[in-house]
Amino acid sequence: MSEPIRPSELEEVLKDVVNVPEPDAEFINSLRARFIAEGHASAKKNQETQMKQKVFSRRLTWALAVLVLVSLVVLFTRPTVVNALKSLFGYVPNVGIINQSSAVRMLEEPVTVVRDNYTLTIEQAVLTNDMSAVVYSYMLPPDYVIPDSISTENYAPFLTLPDGTRLDVERARHVESQDCPQCYIRYLMEFPPLAVDVNEVTLDIPDLVAVPSNTAPREWKVQLKFKPADPAAIAPVIAQMVTPMPTDISTDAPTQSMDTYGITATLEKFVALPDGYILYGATSWTDSRIPPYGVVSVLVSITDSAGAEIPFDYADPGMFAAPEELREYWAFKIGTNFTAPLKLTFGMLASLPADGGSFTFDPGPTPQMGQKWEINQDVTVNDEVIHVLTAEQGGIEPGYFLFAMQSDSNIIGASIIDLANPPMGGGGGGGGGLPEPGVPFYSGFGYQMPIPQGPLTFTFMNVEVLVDGEWVLNWTP
Amino acid sequence: MENENPRRLEVDSKTVQRALEGVQSALAQIYDTYAKPIYRYHHSRVGNAPDAEDLTAQTFLAVLESLTRYQHRDNFTAWIFQIARNKLMDHFRRNHSHGEIHESVVDPAQGDVLEAVVRDESRARLKSLLHLLDEEERELIRLRYTAELSFVEIAQLLGRKEDAVRKAIRRILDRLSIQMEAQNV
User: Fold this and answer.
1) What residue spans define the domains of chain A?
2) N or C: which end of chain B has fewer CB atoms below 10 A?
3) A378 backbone dihedrals φ, ψ, rounded to 5°
4) Could you say which of B47, B75, B98 is where a domain stops?
């Protein structure tokens, strides 16, 4: 028999038991770089949205041009129109989709600068009539250690033209660097367009992105020279509007609303690369009850005509929904090893405000910890029935009630509130959720003690719905 | 038990504001403060590194998307862990599974052999008892001992009073201690 564990030792053993392995340092550093770079770029994007309307107008003009041309393709699908699209838009790896309606220039050759064992490489530059994109990556010294204290400011990069004009960065974002394992980060910056007669600029990088500036060399200056782009370096972008097949709505459940909330998944264009394809599209919805970001579209599978499941990676869609836009953009990259056509199958999860269904429950004057109550009330919420099955006083602390619920429809989660007795901390009751419709789910609510006496009324605030049907896109390159 | 964990740097509203402005040191502070606790929390639920890494990445990218809507003022820990919990919920929903407390792997050859045997017996008993806890109790244990949140942070996350959380965890520990003693007789 072993020695009984002393209470003072229990915490230590407990920490030991629930301890998990430390994360891989490479993962932590890689995600750190991405988080900082994307956070920085996102802020830039927000500032740009607020302050630079002319940039927005330019993007809008481009978007409208795409829309018009896509419409032309949908209406006519004539080879001449497709060819016109191919000549208007192109795809450059690490930069994305570019406008090539006028001559495109690129970096003459990559430029590498080494300082204090930091290796900075300007990998690519693409000049079009609406922007100047520059991509850089850098490698840290082999013995680099992220410091504990980070207190310095970072300054944004800019271009200096031969006449001294300064062009500040307008947008920036992290770019995947899986093809460069030694790279700490790859970063894309967008500056205003350069005049056609400017073929040389100085790139100033006051601070490398995503590394504390008190640890790395600062004030990087790199001369960049441009030349007409090699057409072979630009892959064609092919507009191909693929609308979803009719959704497959189950009729097994009698209380299904069959509402799909105006959700549409549309494949809009693709890029053919030597090693595969990038498919671009968006999921939008028209039901304004679902807020922005309220739909999660899940690409369940891609299968080819032989029934084989095709692996895919997420790609940068290069587009963001506007703050109030009911749309999310997506992009997926696939290889070339498949037999067309491909079938893309999406499932959708939606979060909806509840229309106020409620139920009552009386725990009695002295509810006990662990005590259970049968409730068995059917509540109509958003025209669907939620069966409130049982209540249980949580098992941790008095005042917390956990309700088991079930729905015959596709409601898979819900949150509730006692409007007469606001919850502790101003928050709502936590919603629970199980993946399959018809399986009980749980919703909890905690009272500040003492528990109010008498029957308690709980009102539904929100429901989570697994939207009926599948969104199927058939695509042939 | 009653002592708080040695705390990381706190992320205050000023830091959040600076992160929103794209100040890289502020973004780094947020990441460095929470990356490992959130990874540990995810790992404790999914039990493997690839999924934990994926969920950690998803959590931090969601933080960037949601930062403009951060209104919790001084409750950043509660806010970011709520995002982590939501990502877990999505994960389980898609994979049709639920989280368990996953135990660490300790090399029994480390340290004194007798001590290791005793420790392993204690661990084994405690492990079996942990599986008897209900889901909310297990969540308290994960948040406190895997993610290493303070009582205040757990209270903010769960919408409860700090004292209630402190007592609840104390009660769980007392019960585990009693049960372990009972098994030892």
Assistant:
1) 25-142+154-233, 236-352+468-475, 358-465
2) C
3) -100, 125
4) B98
Q: Give contacts of A 45-104 with B, CB under 8 A.
A: 46-47
Q: Are residues B113 and B94 in the same domain?
A: no
Question: Among the ranges A343-347, B108-112, B153-157, which has the highest mean pLDDT value?
Answer: A343-347
Region label for B159, one of left (φ > 0), alpha (ψ between -120 and 50) or beta (otherwise): left
CA nearest to B69 within chain A: A323
Sign of the C-alpha dihedral computed for residues A446, A450, A452 and A454 taken in this order:
positive
Of residues B20, B142, B160, nearest to A43 (C-beta): B20
- Report the residue of chain B nearest A7, measured CA to CA: B177
Classify domain A236-352+468-475 by CATH number.
2.60.40.1640
What confidence score (pLDDT) does residue A78 get?
41
| Two structure tokens written together for A161 | 């033209």
CB A2 within 8 A of CB B118: yes
Residue of B nearest to A171 (CA): B22
DSSP per residue, A279-303: EEEEEE---TTSPTT-EEEEEEEEE
- In chain B, whose CA is at the least distance from the CA of A397? B168
Band of pLDDT at residue B60, cut at 50, 70 and 90: very high
**Chain B contacts of A19, Cβ < 8 Å?**
104, 145-146
Task: Write the DSSP string, B28-76.
Answer: HHHHHHHHHHHHHHHHHHH-SHHHHHHHHHHHHHHHHHHGGG---TT-H
Look at residue B22 and give its three-state secondary structure: coil
* Cβ atoms of A313 and B54 closer than 8 Å: no
End-to-end, the C-alpha distance of chain B in Å comes to 25
Question: What is the arithmetic mean of pLDDT over A426-454?
Answer: 58
Our CA-based measurement puts residue B15 at a distance from the nearest CA of chain A, in whole angstroms, of 11
Say whether residue B140 is in contact with chain A using an 8 A CB cutoff.
Answer: yes
* Percent helix, strand and coil across chain A, each to the nearest 5: 15, 40, 45
Checking if the pLDDT of A347 tops 70, the result is: yes
How far apart, in whole angstroms, are the C-alpha atoms of residue A355 and residue A367?
A: 30
Round to the nearest angstrom and report the end-to-end CA distance of chain A.
Answer: 70
Is residue B124 within 8 angstroms of chain A, CB to CB? no
Interface of B with A in 38-97 (CB under 8 A): 39-40, 43-44, 49, 52-53, 56-57, 60-61, 63-65, 67-68, 89-90, 92-96
Residue B60 maps to a domain: yes
Distance CA B63, CA A31 (A): 13
DSSP category for residue A231 = G
Nearest to B58 by CA among A172, A349, A31: A31
What is the band of A375 on the pLDDT scale with cuts at 50, 70, 90? very high
Q: Is the pLDDT of residue A59 over 50?
A: no
How is B95-139 classified by DSSP, letter by letter? Answer: HT----PPPP---TTSS-HHHHHHHHHHHHHHHHHHTTS-HHHHH
Structure tokens at A201: 């600029």
Name the nearest CA neighbour of A311 among A322, A319, A303, A320.
A303
Phi-psi region of B124 (alpha: psi -120 to 50; beta: other; left: phi over 0): alpha
Q: Is A10 helix (H, G, I), strand (E, B) or coil?
A: helix
A436 touches chain B (CB under 8 A): yes
Asked if the Cβ–Cβ distance from B104 to A425 is below 8 Å, we say no
The answer to whether the Cβ–Cβ distance between A448 and B21 falls below 8 Å is: no
A168 Cβ under 8 Å from any chain B Cβ:
no
CA distance B101 to chain A (A): 7
